[in-house]
Amino acid sequence: MPLHSAVALICATVSLFVIAGAEDPYRFFNWNVTYGDIFPLGVRQTGILINGQFPGPDIHSVTNDNLIINVFNSLNEPFLLSWNGVQNRRNSYEDGVYGTTCPIPPGKNFTYILQVKDQIGSFYYFPSLGFHKAAGGFGGIRILSRPRIPVPFPDPAGDYTVLIGDWYKANHTDLRAQLDSGRKLPFPDGILINGRGPGGASFNVEQGKTYRLRISNVGLQSSLNFRIQNHKLKLVEVEGTHTLQTTYSSIDLHLGQSMSVLFTADQSAQDYYIVVSSRFTNPVLTSTATLRYSNSAGPVSGPPPGGPTIQVDWSLNQARSIRTNLTASGPRPNPQGSYHYGLINTTRTIRLANSAGQVNGKQRYAVNSVSFVPADTPLKLADFFKIDGVYRIGSISDNPTGGGIYLDTSVMNSDYRSFIEIVFQNDEDIVQSWHLDGYSFFVVGMDGGQWTAASRNGYNLRDAVSRCTTQVYPKSWTAIYVALDNVGMWNLRSEYWARQYLGQQFYLRVFTTSTSLRDEYPIPKNALLCGRASGRRTRPL
Predict the structure, then answer these.
(1) What is the pLDDT of residues 298-333, one digit of tens each?
(2) What residues contact residue 198 under an 8 Å CB cut-off, 6+ apart?
(3) Is residue 346 domain-shared with residue 247, that is, in the same domain?
(4) Residues in the chain where the model's pLDDT stays below 50
(5) What is the CATH number of the domain that holds 301?
């Protein structure tokens, strides 16, 4: 499609389906998704590029902005982008996962219409289908506060996106074929920092100034530790929540997690190591980048500083220390602490247990014994068009069954405006990381062993951090509170990407009988239709 045609389509789409008031600005993006040769670990492999970039371009926005993102798929296979942490309020059709959105066919385009309603913070986007994430196609998202909303720290001298993640030298097609054949993936080959291998990335600073790093773990299976030689890191934001400004020498980011740290270039003028290393692995993977002072007197010296390796208690204690700054503003002027989640009675407890096993001789992963398999039609479209037989409500239990793994298109029903407790129980010996689309939730507790009702006595009901991705340590549990105030079909998934691909996910259907636009937007007029929804109309004639 020529560029002028694409722009015309975008303008037509926006004029047809305006989802916010005219006072909220629009930002337009035209992205061409292609394959290209990349060499992040020194060998040529096929990467997924956006406008020729690996990683893809950052999205810069301000609270309530409308983002009009025209994605042209120049790959030879279907493609979707999803927006990790962007809540797509009242509009799960735009979420960009297969349960909500039809894939963009090869040679075609689709225009996402997103609004970053009532959000601030650091997030990222990624390709959600076909194990594409192992080839790239990811990039940073930053949502700045509106000009009159106070931010609890001075403007930094610079603001950098830092995308970290483990990486394979093999192409995503080879990795996908291994998973499709029922085999596990091998240990990753290395760690990338902004798409580059050891020593490849650099960040320029001026002595005496303070900088913000927006760090996201966009990897496939490894928790990572981040540190800067001789510099302290002050945590200020986690996935849209301003935190207590605690200082750390290094910080853990589990799969799918994002956070912002401030650091001051207060050391003697030279180059310093930025180090990212894997956690809870043997061997330990390590990669480095360079922090370069503008008046540097010399290159990095000595070995890169070491960090924690297999210590779970160290990571657990750090996680518990990450708390909400109750007096700071969030996306609105009122303090973040004005929402007293600890005083609200929960109406339902959902306990979710992850498991691994074989089904028909092939490796699968499950939640409450159900290993998710995609239906032939996106679940949200099946809901909208009232297509029977695509999925069944109640196909996954509220509690672990203890039974063997079986395959199903698992959907859990829930009531709009209910306030629920979800407990993630991890009886395996690796760290789990869970993400819920469409929401932020309060991480009220985490500890070792089995969760029981008595575990609630240790919950943080005052200043737990609100985020969209949480870890569960080995042989441990994590509990969250969620206010189900966003109607839609929302993916709850493992961020361990092979486990997600092989079934460790399901959809939370937040449902209301209301047809009011105050509760949910209509299906986008430009929505792609596929499967049993093909040939239908998004609007009456």
Answers:
(1) 999 999 999 999 999 999 999 999 999 999 999 999
(2) 190, 286, 287, 288
(3) no
(4) 1-21
(5) 2.60.40.420
